[in-house]
Amino acid sequence: MRCHHCGWVNREEAAFCDECGAALACLVVPQTSFIGRQAELAALEAAMQQSCAGQGQLMLLSGDPGIGKTHTAQEFATRAEQQGMRVCWGRCYEEPGAPLYWPWLQLLRGWLEEADSALSGEIPGSDAGVIAELLPELRQRLPDLIEPPPIEDPAQARFRLLDTLTRFWQQAARHQPLVLILDDLHWADTASLKLLEFLAREIAASPLLLLGSFRDIELSRQHPLSDTLGALSRLPHCRRLPLSGMSRDETERFLGSLAGTLPLTAVATAIYQHSEGNPLFMRELSRHLLQEGLPADGVVPRIPAGIREIIGQRLNRLSRDCNRLLGMAAVIGRRFELELLAGLALPDAELMDILDEALEAHIVEALPQPGRFQFSHALVRETLYEELSTTRRMRLHRQAGERLETLHRHDLPTRLPELAHHFAEAAPAGTAETAIDYAQRAGARADTLLAYEEAVHFYHLALQLQELYLPQDSERGCCLLLALAEARNRAGGRADESLIIFGQAAELARHAGPAAEWAVAMLARAAIGFERVGCRIGRHGEQAVALLEEALAALDPSTERLRAELLAALCRANIYCDRPQAAHAAFQQATRLARRLGDPLTLFEALSAIVPARSWPEHLDERLAAAREALELVSRAGHPEWAVGYMTGWYIGDLMEYGDIDSARAVLELHQRVANAWRQPFLQAVGLCAQAMLTTHRGRFAEAEQQARENLIVGRRFSPDHAEGVFGMQMFTLRREQGRLGELQPVLSHFVRNSPETAAWRPGLAVLYADLELMEEARIELKYLMTDELKAVARDAMWSTSITYLAEVCARLDEAGYATTLYRYLLPYGGRNIVSGAHTVCYGSADRFLGMLAVTLKQWDTAERHFQAALAMDERTGGWPWLAHDRYQYARLLAQRKQTEPARALEQAALLAARGLGMEVLARRCDVLRETLSTRPVFPDGLSRREVQVLKLLAAGRSNRQVAERLFVSPNTVANHVRNILAKTNTANRTEAAAYAIRHGLVEK
């Protein structure tokens, strides 16, 4: 029967509620209220209505142990079922030996057990294959499932799993609205929390409600759930419901259901003061008072000092044999199997007789699965466990581990976490080597199941045990360090830790010396791992180069496969050290060796090693040739995923730089086909980024902005920081062409000045200042960045973009002193396009910027050749925005050389394109140039037509802002004109300038 106070479902013959202690038989008038939780239930029911309407919700119940989180969830589950929703439960396991993804496995099994064969058969074959990696029994139910193709990249492999499970629950909810309850999240493994984060982000448009509960007192800043809660709190459909204790009145109502006649005021006051309204504590106190009896006056003479004392008093009423048995069960965990317990205690028949005593006392309760039991509360188990002596604990843990080995010898992999836990706890008693072996195997299995955080835990446990008990086994220690470093890298977020651990592995291998055969191979693995992690986070390659060269020197020349891998890594490391000659030499050696080996994957890795070297224009032809061969190789091998995973993004950027737009588009189509088939966010983001670049190149700004925003959404699912950086770069380019840079200036200025590590944005800030007519600010940035041969500008994939921005600023400021240096650095890009990053933005022909620098240097013929080359390149590649810029810059040059008619024709073509494409800034510049080219009178002292217009308005008493509004320019531009007017007319202020205008007949008297 269901308790009318706490909602707990009890056995029909029960006299008292197993959970809250209420006297079930004495509830003559059933109460329909759920004491103390009406507001929370109302919020949950409102969320239920929203989710049924297709607006997925995430609700989180938090509070102290025993506060009623599970009971509230049970009551809500009943109400949800009455509304036609399907409810599935997943409870997190308290002990360290919990299987990976345990709460989600329970949810999956619960759904599949009740789903008919037709419904479960709707799971797509490829998705079923992915899910079966977690749930092997699915293969028996769906024999036609498709085994998923392997994925090398661990982050992408985990994404496929999380994405597949998310789609599964979304599809399941379409058949019947779903409530998924995850109880006790504070005990969840990190992999389960990652899945919760992922699913929660995707349920907004699904009839699905996620309900989680957790103890907030268990959480520290280092607890994995703390990070998860931080991520979930940013979701608009997430709400947290903190549960507090019952009020004084609710406590009295709670106690009113107890058997017998009680003077409620005195009892309720005493219990409320001691329990602070915590239902668990009140339940235990109530049981204690019922069993001890109450004095005639109803006053409680003594309330136990703490809940543990109350539990201890309850345990003291049990027989010695029962307490001894429960102590053995406590070693197994909160939940335990009768079959396993029998291996530690007595034959089954005698054991059940003793266990019945604990069941009758409500210390233990039976679970729905036959032969499985659990302690009524975690505190009961903790009390029993802490009462055991250290030696008895170790002995029982060892017996539990050995019994598990016997019982599960045919399915040992599924019990590896438990085995590692039990033998680790018994390690001082001689099980250290066994514990290390199981912990290492548990880590490897967690890796296989993509539960990288749990792999880190088990490898770390194995390493601790090895260092404590078997420090002389350096080979195993090094192997564990490498496994730990790789797992930490796969887990993400702590790349620096991975680098440190790889360094420790290298030091251990180095200390063993070349005489140890294992040491050389492990030094090589440590060096390769160190380089890969450093490359992924953009770390300078100095340390990686040193490690790789050391490993190569120690390696036996006959170990050719490993040598080729080391050389490919050395090539990449030298790229990140800006060492072109060393990188090129390593690349040549790696490819020669790989060709001799004849292994396609080894050759692909060698060829693709040089592709990221986009900051070296002199190697473009070599990079294109290597990428072309690598692409042909993967096509013949039937593994396009090799190229899409590691190379196509860089290749698209190189093809754009070369001006081969058709080939770039073809590679992009291949990339998107594979990325969309795999549904990998990183690869999809690469494709969307490159697509936005090509769309911008065509001048379709609105479409490009939409693609950039899609890229941001997809990319945030994989790497938020990287996605936001790419989006910022693309939006900066679009807003600049649209004349909307003013929207970004305050944010970008603050960002650069308050984040020293973002120096890469300073060239962009300089060009922003110049576009906004903030010339002094632009001059300050240019001077800073040009110091010591552009020392402050990183020589990375953004190098060409940075010097392009600086070239524009230099030309706008007419700084001939800097133009020579910039021209020298930009000249190797002549005849090519400027591409930002790997494939973020294309700015059209580099010759346009070279022409602008040549104009600044008064090298007219050179400038004209560059502008003609730019016109040819941008017209051939369909770079319509950049072609408009080419025409405008060329027209300015011709105007300076008094070639008015061709200049006017170019200006008109540029203006027409600018207006058609929505390039507001360029259109305004063309208007100014048209005035310069038009027939006009000669004004005194070299004043321009625009300056005379400004002067007339100044003489009429207008302010700078009023002048700006009249002439449709910015106040900054007006201020520049005013400074020029005062200088040209040799006047000191506006009054003198007005008098000058009257004196020279520029205004009416």
Automatic annotation (TrEMBL):
Biological process per Gene Ontology, one example term: regulation of DNA-templated transcription
Residue ranges constituting the HTH luxR-type domain according to the UniProt record: 936-1001
GO molecular function annotation: adenylate cyclase activity; ATP binding; DNA binding
SUPFAM superfamilies reported in the protein's UniProt record: C-terminal effector domain of the bipartite response regulators, P-loop containing nucleoside triphosphate hydrolases
Assigned keywords, A-Z: ATP-binding, Nucleotide-binding
A GO term from the CC aspect: cytoplasm
SMART domains per UniProt: HTH_LUXR
Membrane is among the record's keywords: no
Gene3D superfamilies referenced in this protein's UniProt entry, alphabetically: P-loop containing nucleotide triphosphate hydrolases, Tetratricopeptide repeat domain, Winged helix-like DNA-binding domain superfamily/Winged helix DNA-binding domain
Domain of life: Bacteria
Keyword Cell inner membrane: no
InterPro entries the UniProt entry points to: AAA_16, P-loop_NTPase, Sig_transdc_resp-reg_C-effctor, TPR-like_helical_dom_sf, Tscrpt_reg_LuxR_C, WH-like_DNA-bd_sf
Protein name: Helix-turn-helix transcriptional regulator
Source organism: Halomonas heilongjiangensis
